[in-house]
Amino acid sequence: MKTLGVNMLDVKRSNRHTIVDLLYFQGPQSRKQLAEKSGLTAAAITMLVNDLIEEGLIVLSDEKKLTSKVGRKEQNIDLNYKQLYSLGVLFNFDGIFLMIATLDMQPVFSYRFDLPPLPMDFSSMVEKICEKLAYAMVSNGIHIQNVIGIGVSVLGTTDSEHGISINSYGLLNKSENIVESFRKYFDLPVIAENNVRAYLCGLQFYERKRNRESTLFLNYSQRLSGAFQVNGNMYMGSNYNSAQLGHTTIPNNDRLCHCGKRGCVDTLGSLFWLRHDMIEKNPSLNPEMEVLEMLDLYSKGEPAVCEVLDRSIYNAALVICNAVVALDPQKVILHGHYFSNQKYISRLMGEMEKINPHAKQITSVSHFNKQIDSLCPCALAIDHFFSHGAVLERPSQNNA
Ligand SMILES: [Zn+2]
């Protein structure tokens, strides 16, 4: 009997998920439209919607009223976007970014911490972050009961099932337990994910477009990394390392990579190595040069920068084309500083056209910017909230 009870609860959560997903990704609509699209009965929709209205998650919308065939006006309903908030934290080599956003990804608070000495003292950093978030909630009149969760994104290999950052290339200590650390301060669901997968999740919620296609998503702001989504689901790989194209190897390269392998693309394309190779050719270049400065010199045609970056672009084109052959995705999305540079991207597309025209044809560039990047962890919390039936979870009371 107990199993039946759990199953009924699962069904209810799954139906609630269907409703909130339809409202979020397809906009305000009537109960009748929800019934048609979900395949649920009108009676079931009425019951579920009444529950959601009572909980304050859904409101009657006065924006659009549709007239049915018999001329009756139908009341549209919508999610109560300004009522619920999600918290987001992004750990990156250019800082730690905090964000509080409404359910429709509108930021209400953002803050950036400089990186402490690495690898960081994680527990004291989490304490600072949580203090800052708690203070921001108070000053913005946000009550904890209206917060759906915290999304945390970290670069590198992340075990999202257990909420552990396995290897963030020296940013955090290895096997840092993110979920446990944040739960000490907030009795909220904590969702930890690799930063590229967080981008991919954020992209869907930001653009309000559920991605049902098989997508290879590549991020290149410091290092080339990626995520692979199959029919709307993230493919993690057996070690949470799928689509890490920066660690595919190329010939005639015996450099030892921080991942332990030799000859990775990363040892020719990471900021550290690009800078190293450029300065070898032109010692007067700034040894502290950041990515944007490098790309600026590339656009202006600085010979050493062009020579090294052009070789790196060829490598990137090669691994992307090979990945397209191996994974056969419907589309490839490129994201990050390098791919946002006009000269870089047109050269990359040119190389891809020569190697594999099909790969070039399915590739496009995302129009993300830094602010949207730091919103992405919030989307992790929203995604978790939706997929768990839009129930405000409090882990300490979780006895289901
Ligand atoms: Zn490597």
Specify Rg, calculated over alpha carbons.
Answer: 23 Å
Bulk shape: globular
Mean pLDDT: 91
Distance between the termini: 15 Å
Structural class: alpha/beta
Secondary structure: number of strands: 16
Work out the helicity level: 40-55%
Q: Taking strands numbered 1, 2, ... along the chain, how are they ordered across the largest sheet? A: 6-5-4-7-11
Low-confidence spans: pLDDT under 50, at least 5 residues?
Answer: none
Q: CATH class of the largest domain, anyone?
A: Alpha Beta
- Kindly report the CATH topology of the largest domain: Nucleotidyltransferase, domain 5
Indicate the proportion of strand residues. Answer: 15-25%
Major sheet attributes: 5 strands, mixed
The helix tally amounts to: 14
Give the second-level CATH assignment, the architecture of the largest domain. Answer: 2-Layer Sandwich
**Ions, cofactors, ligands: which are bound?**
zinc ion
The CATH homologous superfamily of the largest domain is called: ATPase, nucleotide binding domain
Number of structural units classed as domains: 3
- Written as H for each helix and E for each strand, in order along the chain, the element string is HEHHEEEEEHEEEEHEHEEEHHHHEHHHEH
